[in-house]
Structure formats: C-alpha cells, structure tokens
C-alpha cells in the first residue's frame, strides 16, 4: 500500500526527532536534556502518520524514561488514541482521563462542544483554555466518528464527570488561597482522590 507523501513527511520528521533524542540520551549516559520538547512530538507525529507500532514504542519509552512528568495534553491525547486504535480499551480510557485532567477544555474543544472557562487556578499554560488554539495544527488530531463517540461517551461517564468536578473544585479553591498549609491540604486531598480514582468516590 502506497503511503501518501504528506504522511511520509510526518513520519520522516518523527524519525529525525527520535534519532536526535536517542543521540542525546546516549551522549548524556541514559538521561535527556530536552529543552526543545522533542519527547512530546515524536509519539503524536507517529500517530498522525498512522504508524501505531512506532507510536506505542515511543510512548513505552516515554513512560520509562520520564516517569515523573506531569504530561503535555496533546501528547497524552494522541497516546490515548494510539491505544484505542490498537484495541487497548482499558489503557486508552485511563490515558484519556489523564488528558482531560491535564486540560479540561481540550476534549470539548476537539468535539466542538460549548466550552466554559472555569474560574480556577491554572497550574501552567498547558492547562489554560487557549491551549488548543496555540497548538500547531499538525498535532491536533482528526477524529473518526467512532472516536468522537468514544470520547463523548467517556466525558459523560460517572468517572469522568466525578473527576472533572473534583478537579474544578480543587483548583477553584486554590485560585484565591494563599496560605501555604491550606494549599498543601487542598492538593493532598486532590492527590488522594486521583490515586483512588478507579476505586471510590472522593
């Protein structure tokens, strides 16, 4: 099957970035110093060109090499889609939930649903309402009808609704709280809820 030239260009870009990252990792003895954010572009580019095997290999590397990273929303979204397209439904759902919490505006915007800006503390520009509009178009995925229905179904599920409500409650409380101890208590409660997200309500 002939690969369209546009997809070849995307795949070649992903390969170049992967080689550069691997070279850096080797030079630094197994660590990376990726100020340009190559690690966040490789997986999405492989998904966008249809190379799921390469995408999942990269995401497996990322999970091992960057275990403490909060995560970049588009990177996580394409990860969820790669898992979904590979038939890994449970892991896809988990990664989609992470995507929603990284930026609560992204998925509704992608589905062209009404998006209300919440009066909450946004921990970084990755969490802000305009994030999707500042993302290069080549990284924003086109969803099939089935994928749109899947994401919509997850967003309206009890788990996603509960965690979104808890997230908004937490970060609304942080928006005007300046006492360090009280902020830590609010965040501790959120971290407990997140850790127990699949087992019980907060």
Q: Gist?
A:
This protein has 202 residues and is mainly alpha-helical. It has 9 helices and no strands.
Question: Which features characterize this protein?
Answer:
202 residues, mainly alpha, globular
Architecture overview:
The protein has 202 residues and is mainly alpha-helical. It has a domain at 1-69. It is built from 9 helices and no strands. It has helices at 5-27, 38-48, 52-65, 73-85, 89-102, 106-110, 145-155, 158-175, 180-195. Helix 4 runs antiparallel to helix 5 and helix 8 runs antiparallel to helix 9 (180-195). The radius of gyration is 18 Å and the shape is globular.
Question: Can you summarize the main beta sheet?
Answer: none
Provide the gyration radius in Å: 18 Å
The geometry reads as globular
Number of strands: 0
- Number of DSSP helical runs: 9
The portion of residues forming beta strands comes to: under 5%
Q: Whole-number average pLDDT?
A: 92
Spell out the helices and strands N to C. HHHHHHHHH
Pairing-aware structural class of the strands and helices? mainly alpha
Helix content: 55-70%
Low-confidence stretches: none
> What is the CA–CA distance across the termini?
50 Å
């Amino acid at each position: 099957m002939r690969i369209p030239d546009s997809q070849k260009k995307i795949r070649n870009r992903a390969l170049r970035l992967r080689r550069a990252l691997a070279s850096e990792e080797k030079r630094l003895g197994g660590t990376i110093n990726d100020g340009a954010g190559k690690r966040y572009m490789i997986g999405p580019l492989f998904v966008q060109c249809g190379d799921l095997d390469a995408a999942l290999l990269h995401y497996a590397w990322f999970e091992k090499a960057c275990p403490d990273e909060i995560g970049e929303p588009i990177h996580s979204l394409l990860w969820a889609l790669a898992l979904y397209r590979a038939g890994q439904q449970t892991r896809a759902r988990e990664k989609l939930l992470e995507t929603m919490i990284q930026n609560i505006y992204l998925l509704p915007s992608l589905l062209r649903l009404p998006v209300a800006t919440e009066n909450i503390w946004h921990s970084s520009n990755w969490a802000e309402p305009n994030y999707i509009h500042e993302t290069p178009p080549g990284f924003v995925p086109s969803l099939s009808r089935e994928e749109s229905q899947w994401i919509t179904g997850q967003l309206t599920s009890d788990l996603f609704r509960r965690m979104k409500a808890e997230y908004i409650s937490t970060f609304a409380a942080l928006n005007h709280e300046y006492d360090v101890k009280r902020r830590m208590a609010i965040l501790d409660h959120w971290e407990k809820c997140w850790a127990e997200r699949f087992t019980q309500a907060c």
